[in-house]
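Entry for ribose-5-phosphate complex. Fields follow.
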Amino acid sequence: MSEQMSPADRAKYAAAHRAAAFVEDGMRVGLGTGSTAAWLVRSLGQRQRDEGLRFRAVPTSQRTAEQAREEGIALVTLEEAGWLDLTIDGADEFDAEFNLIKGGGGALLREKIVAAASERMIVIADIGKEVGRLGAFPLPVEVIPFGWQATQRLIEETLEAADVLGREVRPRLAGGQPFVTDEGNYILDLHLGRIGQPRRLAMVLNQIPGVVENGLFVDICDMVIAGYADGRVELRDRDRGASQQDNIELPRPGNLFSDIAE
Ligand SMILES: O=C[C@H](O)[C@H](O)[C@H](O)COP(=O)(O)O
């Protein structure tokens, strides 16, 4: 691997490179968003060039679509694909139950739709994203711009009624303005500290008028591939309840785009 890579980047690249091996000829694949997913797109581009791998992909963001095009990956819409064989994506946090927080990059809505429309979802992450309980990472909630302050207040009241600790709700900003998602919505970040019941919270949040989707992924992830800075990866399979360690020789990534390693 490149000498310039940070330990976190080496871990992300290790996980992404291992996950790329799960893509087979002819598959319809969901491509996630974020710095770890960017390593995946890079690895898949490399497999196309080296092995002639051919697959069609549905990107979960404009950012991923642009990078995939640069890699020569054939893109289709989810409508065209119909259903996907596999989605591979990053996460902001994951726990032992395969629950996730996603949306740190604001792509949670498309990511959840794409992952839910897939036979299988593999999460790739630096081992540092593993938590005992979700919630240290602020939970992103995508809301409709119309009346978003009212939606924020409803979320705060709902959290208060549910006696959720912390419960600070902050609109996400970009350059002093509301951050706008690929679907034209806003994001409210819920600073909760600790989420006791992710399934229940996910359902309650989605009942609030104005909420489009939340970043809790429950019963969606089938496998976690966790990467370590020394290039080791650990594969955890939800169905098999087993964990497997791989010590693979990682090729140098080569021709890296500077924006891959954010
Ligand atoms: O909206 C962004 C996505 O959910 C990302 O997959 C998540 O934020 C993890 O990103 P990264 O791989 O950059 O840590």
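NOTE: The chain is about 30% helix and 25% strand.
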